[in-house]
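hey
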């Protein structure tokens, strides 16, 4: 990881030098290309984190796997034979998929799972008391992938996450302040009855589909599993980040922050069952929380945006700032008070996606935020979405709930001649306080390209 970080620091230093020395001269600098470079640097950071997590996975049967609240147990790794060192989780998945393919199309001549693979699976499942592979897949291999989602996430990883025992779930968010009194000897004090604060989490199902050809091969499946896992982990993390950032329950012809002038499709990821995310809070719920600057970004305007956090603006240890790659290049890199990663020092704590900080506030670059119209909402006409935005939150004031972790289901599609694998999870988002007046979330929108 140190080598990757060193490379990112070097690249960021060169990017900043290019932006600052050319002073916004768009004739000699391609900011779009620089933004793509920034995205690649963050992707490299995420890829390295996933690689480290993969190397650190438990190799002994019974070791816990998965994030807190969604723990499962590892079935270990294969010892000896053709598949020595492979994860038994993956072996069971391959056997499960091949068996499904054979049962789905019995008229085709498949190569059945090899004796080596069958022996591995039979031993693993009998050792754990399971009778077959079908019931394992939703809780086995998915547990490690679920953990990868959180490793790769850039927004969700900065706030607290909880499993939801019910749906909806009333989340107790904290206590009101108790009252303190002067004590008198032999006299009982007055009891405090602080009010509690809560927020209701209502989950929304998010899913994707991966199609497999009928023509499956055991060795081929095992060979592609690492890339499949990495692809699902990266895209799954991005889907969670986008949900937290962009969730909006407005289902109408106008008004949804992600589609301001059209009716969102019923399948749009951001169209929730009553939940609203970070951007909605500072653009709509408490509109005074986001500053519409309608000009290029300056240090003064950055400070004004942070100032909209009110009492939370001084708690820099609890704040985090999110920005899209192009706004990072177009607006932030040239600011005097932006401290890029190459200046952090060896003891700095680096969040996933963090490339800089501003006054001690981490700056996380994420594609979960898109360029928008002047009011911070996104238009159906792409040409109108030409201004950047920044979101700033106090991380203790937001929670992400999961009613169900990652689940794999599979069925046969005879028209496509394929096996359709659907991965899904149920997610909810909530913040603390009365949304119409809460100052724990702020933003800056209408950022004009330099």
């Amino acid at each position: 990881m140190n080598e990757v970080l060193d490379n990112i620091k070097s690249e960021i230093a060169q990017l900043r030098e290019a932006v600052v020395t050319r002073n916004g001269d768009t004739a000699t600098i391609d900011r779009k290309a620089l933004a793509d470079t920034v995205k690649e640097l963050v992707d490299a950071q995420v890829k390295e984190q996933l690689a480290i997590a993969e190397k650190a996975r438990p190799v002994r049967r019974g070791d816990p796997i998965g994030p807190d609240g969604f723990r499962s147990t590892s079935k270990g790794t294969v010892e000896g034979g053709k598949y020595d060192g492979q994860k038994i989780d993956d072996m069971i998945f391959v056997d499960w998929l091949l068996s499904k393919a054979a049962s789905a199309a019995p008229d085709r001549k498949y190569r059945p799972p090899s004796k080596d693979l069958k022996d591995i699976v039979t031993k693993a499942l009998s050792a754990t008391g399971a009778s077959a592979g079908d019931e394992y897949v939703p809780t086995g291999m998915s547990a490690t992938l679920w953990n990868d989602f959180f490793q790769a996430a850039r927004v969700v990883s900065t706030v607290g996450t909880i499993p939801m025992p019910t749906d909806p779930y009333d989340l107790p968010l904290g206590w009101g302040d108790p009252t303190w009194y002067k004590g008198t000897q032999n006299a009982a004090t007055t009891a405090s009855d602080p009010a509690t604060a809560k927020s209701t989490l209502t989950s929304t199902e998010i899913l994707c589909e991966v199609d497999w050809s009928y023509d499956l091969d055991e060795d081929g499946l095992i060979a592609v599993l690492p890339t499949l896992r990495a692809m699902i982990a990266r895209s799954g993390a991005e889907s969670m980040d986008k949900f937290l950032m962009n969730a909006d329950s407005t289902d109408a012809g106008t008004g949804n922050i992600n589609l301001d002038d059209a009716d969102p499709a019923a399948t749009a990821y951001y169209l929730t069952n009553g939940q609203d995310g970070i951007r909605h809070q500072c653009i709509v719920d408490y509109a005074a929380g986001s500053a519409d600057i309608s000009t290029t970004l300056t240090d003064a305007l950055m400070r004004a945006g942070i100032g909209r956090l009110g009492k939370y603006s001084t708690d820099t240890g609890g704040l985090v700032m999110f920005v899209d790659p192009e706004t990072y290049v177009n607006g932030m890199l040239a600011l005097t008070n932006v401290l890029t990663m190459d200046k952090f020092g060896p003891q700095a704590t680096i969040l996933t996606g963090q490339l800089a900080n501003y006054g001690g506030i981490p700056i996380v670059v994420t594609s979960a935020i898109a360029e928008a119209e002047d009011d911070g909402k996104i238009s159906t006409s792409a040409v109108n979405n030409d201004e950047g935005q920044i979101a700033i939150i106090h991380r203790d004031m937001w929670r992400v709930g999961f009613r169900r972790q990652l689940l794999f289901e599979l069925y046969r599609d005879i028209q496509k001649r394929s096996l359709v694998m659907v991965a899904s999870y149920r997610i909810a988002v909530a913040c603390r306080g009365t949304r119409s007046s809460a100052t724990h979330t702020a933003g800056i929108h209408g950022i004009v390209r330099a």
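The radius of gyration is 25 Å. The CA atoms of residues 163 and 402 lie 5 Å apart.
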